[in-house]
Amino acid sequence: MDEIILYNSLGHEKQQFVSRGREVRMYSCGPTVYGRAHIGNLRSYVFADVLRRVLQYNGLVVRQVMNLTDVDDKTIRLAKTENKPLSVVTEPFIDQFKTDTAALHIESPTVLPRATDYIPQMVALIKELLRRKVAYQTEDGSSYFSIQRFAHYGRLTGTAARQLQTGASGRVSADEYDKEQVADFALWKAWTPEDGAVFWQTSLGKGRPGWHIECSAMAMAELSEAFVGQQFEPAHFQTLDIHTGGVDNAFPHHEDEIAQSEAVTGKPFSRFFMHGEHLLVDGQKMAKSLGNVYTLDDLAKHGAEALDFRFLLLQAHYRQKLNFTWMALAAAREARLSLAEFVSRQRQGTDDLPEALAYRLTETRREVEAALVDDLGTPMALAALLLFKREVNRTHLANQAVANLFDLFEPVFALGWQTLPEAQAALELPAEIAVLKSERDAVRAAKDWAKADALRLQLEQAGYSVRDEAAGSVVRPV
Predict the structure, then answer these.
(1) 311/331 Cα distance (integer angstroms)
(2) In terms of pLDDT, which residue wins out, 433 or 263?
(3) Which stretch of DSSP H or E encloses residue 402?
C-alpha cells in the first residue's frame, strides 16, 4: 500500500493517513431530505466517494456511514405545509437521493441511517452532557450546549467561543445559522405549535433533537461501540478515522459535533476532518433567486449524463472551488466519450506493445497512483491517463495491455469506460457511415483537406459527429 497523504482540516495541513488495521471508519455528512439534492450538494458526495475508492484501491476496507437528516426545521416546515406525516414527505427525497447517487456511480454507504431512528441514542447523549454540566435546560424544557464550558471549542475552524455572541440570551434554537448568530446551540428542542405533529415524548420531555446531536449519535452508534443497545457507554467510544462534508459544514456543524462529542467521551471525535469546496455556477453561488440551482435532470436536458458531471468534478481538486458552465460540461462529456472509445479500441487490439510504450505504461500507472494518494489528486491522475492516451494514439496501435491499465483505475474513477454504450455504438457504425469514415480517413492521410471537409459535412448531415485524433477519426451518432 502506498503512503496516503490527506489534508486534515483539524491541523490545516496535509498529514499522512495511517490506518489502525485494515478497516477505516468514515462518517460522511449526508443530505437533509426536504428537497432534491442539487449539483453543488452532489459534489460533496462524489468527493467522499473518491476518498472511499482511493482507500479501497490501497487495500483498506471502508465502513462508511452517511446520515439522512429527516428531522430538522426544514423537514418539519415541509410536513406542516403539506399537512402530511414527516416520513411521507421525506421518503420521496430519500429515494431520489439514492437514484441520483447511483447515477453518479457513488458507492452505497455501508450504513445510511435516518435520524428519526436514533432518537433514544440522542436522548442518552444529551442526558450525559447534562450530567457533566456542559449542557443545561431552560424553562421551556429545551436543552442547550454551553460552548463556554468546553475549553477547546473552535479547534477545527479557529472560531473561539468568546467571538460568538447573540444578544442577551446567548442561545440559538434554529438548526442552521450564520457565524455572527451562533452561540450556545440546541441539543433538544421543546415542542412548540410550529412543530405540529413532529415530536417525541422522552425523558427530556416532549420535543425533538437539534441538528448537530443527530450526527454525533449516528456516528457513535454505527462506527464505535459507544452504545450497548440504547445505553450510552462513553468509555467504549472509539475515535473515528475520517469525517467528511462540504466546506459549509465545517462551521458551525462540525465544530459543534466535535464539542458535544468530545465533551461527553473525553476522546477525540475523529482523527481527520476533510471538506470539499463549493461548486459555483457561472462564477456565482447557486441560488434560487438567480435561477442557477441545477439537478441531474437539468443536466440531462442539455444532453449530458450524470457521469459527464462526475468527470467534470474529477478534473478539479476537491479542495478548490469549481466553476460549473454548460460549455465545461459539454467538454467533459466529449472527453469522457473519447476516453471510453479509446479504451474500447484498445480492448480489441492485438498489436505488440513496443518497449518504449510498455515503459510509458508502467510510468503512467506509477504517476496515477502517486497523484491519487497525494490528497486525492484526481486532476493530475486524469491528466496522466490522457497524456498516455495521446501517446498511444500517435503509434496507431491497439493493445489489450493498454485497456487493462485503464480498467485498473475504473474502480477509482468510476466513469463507466468499461461498458459505456455510446463507446460501443460508435465502433459499430452502419455500413454506409463506416464507408464514409474510411474514405475520409484515407483522404486525410493523403492530406486532401478539401475532400476531407466535404466528407465531414456528409457525415454531419447524416446525423454523426466527427472528431479527429492521431489514430484516426471518431464518428458517432449525435
Answers:
(1) 10
(2) 263
(3) helix 400-413
**Per-residue model confidence (pLDDT) at position 478:** 59
Grid coordinates in use for 164? 460568538
Confidence of residue 323 (pLDDT cuts 50, 70, 90): very high
The span from the first CA to the last CA of the chain, in angstroms, equals 43
- How large is the angle between the packed helices 431-445 and 449-461, nearest 10 degrees? 160
Given a cut of 60, whether residue 177 has pLDDT beyond it is no
In whole angstroms, give the CA distance from residue 17 to residue 7: 9
As to burial, measured by CB atoms within 10 angstroms (0-12 exposed, 13-18 middle, 19+ buried), residue 268 is middle
- Give 5's strand partners: 16, 374
CB 304 within 8 Å of CB 333: yes
Residues sharing a CB contact under 8 Å with residue 431, sequence separation 6 or more, in sequence order: none
Residue 129 has pLDDT above 70, yes or no: yes
Closest by Cα among 301, 283, 303 to 292: 283
Neighbours of 424 (CB within 10 A): 12
Q: Which three cell numbers stand for residue 174?
A: 434554529
What's the pTM value of the predicted model, to 2 decimals? 0.87
**Contacts for 71 with CB less than 8 Å, ≥ 6 apart:** 86, 115, 116, 198, 208, 209, 214
Place of cell 479557529: 158
Is 409 exposed, middle or buried (CB count within 10 Å of its CB: 0-12, 13-18, 19+)?
buried
